Amino acid sequence: MKQNLKRAGKFYYFYMSKYPWQLLASVVVVIFFAVFNSLAPVYLGKTVQDLTEFLHAWQNGGGSLSQFNLDAGILILCYLLSGLGDFGTSMILSWIGGVATGEMRSGLFNKMQRMRVQYFDTHSDGDILARFTSDLDNIFNAVNEAFVQTFYSIAQIVGSLYMMFSTNTTLAWVGLATTPLALAIAAVNIRVASQAVDQQQNDIGKLNGYINEQVTGQKVIITNGLQEDSIAGFETLNQTVKKTALRGQIWSGILQPLMNGMMLLTSAVVIFGGSWIVMQGGMSTGAALALIVVFVQYAQNYFQCIMQMTSMYGQIQLAITGARRVSEVHEQPDEVKPAHGLPVSEVHDEVVIDNVRFGYQPGKEILHGVTLKAKRGEMVALVGPTGAGKTTVINLLNRFYDVDAGAITIDGVDIRELDLTQLRDTVGIVLQDPQLFSGTIAENICFGKPDATEAEMYAAAEQAHIHDFITSLPDGYQTQISDEQSVFSAGQKQLVSIARTILTNPRILILDEATSNVDTVTEKKIQAAMDNVISGRTSFVIAHRLKTILKADDIAVLRDGRIVEEGTHAQLLEEKGFYAGLYKSQMVFN
Ligand SMILES: Nc1ncnc2c1ncn2[C@@H]1O[C@H](COP(=O)(O)OP(=O)(O)OP(=O)(O)O)[C@@H](O)[C@H]1O
């Protein structure tokens, strides 16, 4: 908790300290508000006293209302000026809140673009998205509402206490008599309520996770006839949410009426205590009435502030958690970029993976000394059972992760010494599950080279065997797509991805062949597109269909992070090992 507070404090200080003048202005305006807000009950008392004295004189045939008018005028002015202060503070803090959260959002987004792939591999999309949405919303609400309220309340409490003690010390103590009890009630309630709300959030999280999974897997559920089981699973979780939500709502909702009750009790105590003081004598009726009215007002003000602060507790808690979660992202290490990275323009000689050892987590090695070599223009293929480490090798080649031991070199230079941006430009990747972005097909193909000419784009699409399909669409290259609403099948998406890669013309190519089943026509197109993109490039291909790699210069069979067989297709067939077995089993179906 202390650690969280420290983190949140640092986070808010970083962003808030950018607006010193606005913050100073809000402090000035809040003091302005507090002064006039605290003066108002005094003038309310004065008007009561003036009125009583006027009525008394009037009954005796005299009296003037001029003092009453003056005090009532000042009272109205006090209300107006405190309202103005209230308005001013709200405006300034809302402005700061809006601008600061805008900055936090762009800070977070920029940071995301600099972070290591490891972060994205170890955090779910939903979790990352929540930092942009609910966490930033909570931070904004806190600056916009909770901080403003707390700020006011503190100023009002200080003002009320000052006025109470300077007006009548005995009655001030009487007015505070119920405070310890109120604070104790609030503390217990907040503790129980926040536990109940935490539980509620957890259970809602579980329910959302379940719904997400069931919606995504709807087709599997339908094909297996598991709708009833799906509903039963949902009902169990939903019942739990209902119960914990009810408990959370009762505990968090009970505080307000409890505090209201305490406020009324305090008013009664003040009236009672005030009457007793008044009855000790020495006060005119007007002054006595005024004193009681003033103290009831102060006691109510004071209690309202305590109520407001306690009701803001939950929101502030969420804001602290939000700040912690956003700070956590900022504390993540950036990608390591060599300060004076060497340029990479051509692969003159070879790419070598030299006795590489690597694990995602310390003490859990995945690759146990892998060595592979691709001469300029050669194609090296990686095959092996699932989980063997093929994708891991690829992750290292592109420096998504760095090796633990050994090295990866291009023309003898360790890739860790190369300029990272240039390295990424040099290495092109066609992923198994290509990602499309919202925009036109043209924008998607030119993603890596936005300044490509139309002719270059058409040539790339033709080489990727997707040009004809695109031109058959009514809007052709200008067809709007997104990843969810794509006009492409899985195989065609792969072709778009190949066109994208061809356009950027990388020297080294990494190709993760799609495992998804595609029809034979598309498969042939993918094969032809792959041949085109591989041709003339130094390439590493993860192959699932061995047909793809018959012409590879070198085929490495990876198993449990080790290369267990290596050679050309013909050599490996002769070895009659894992590869030969796999090839035979695939040929049965071809
Ligand atoms: N981000 C990660 N964090 C931790 N472990 C990982 C991560 N990615 C992969 N692994 C583990 O590393 C091992 C090798 O995985 P990898 O994805 O490289 O295998 P693969 O041969 O490409 O498998 P497939 O053919 O199924 O894609 C597996 O045991 C896997 O669980």
UniProtKB/TrEMBL annotation:
CDD domains: ABC_6TM_Tm288_like. It is a multi-pass membrane protein. Residues 24-318 form the ABC transmembrane type-1 domain. Gene3D superfamilies: ABC transporter type 1, transmembrane domain (1.20.1560.10), P-loop containing nucleotide triphosphate hydrolases (3.40.50.300). GO terms for molecular function: ABC-type oligopeptide transporter activity; ATP binding; ATP hydrolysis activity. Keywords: ATP-binding, Membrane, Nucleotide-binding, Transmembrane, Transmembrane helix, Transport. The chain crosses the membrane at residues 21-44, 146-165, 171-190, 257-279, 285-303. GO terms for cellular component: plasma membrane. This is ABC transporter ATP-binding protein. It comes from the Bacteria. Residues 351-585 form the ABC transporter domain. InterPro entries: AAA+_ATPase, ABC1_TM_dom, ABC1_TM_sf, ABC_transporter-like_ATP-bd, ABC_transporter-like_CS, P-loop_NTPase, Type_1_exporter. Its main location: membrane. It is found in: Cell membrane.
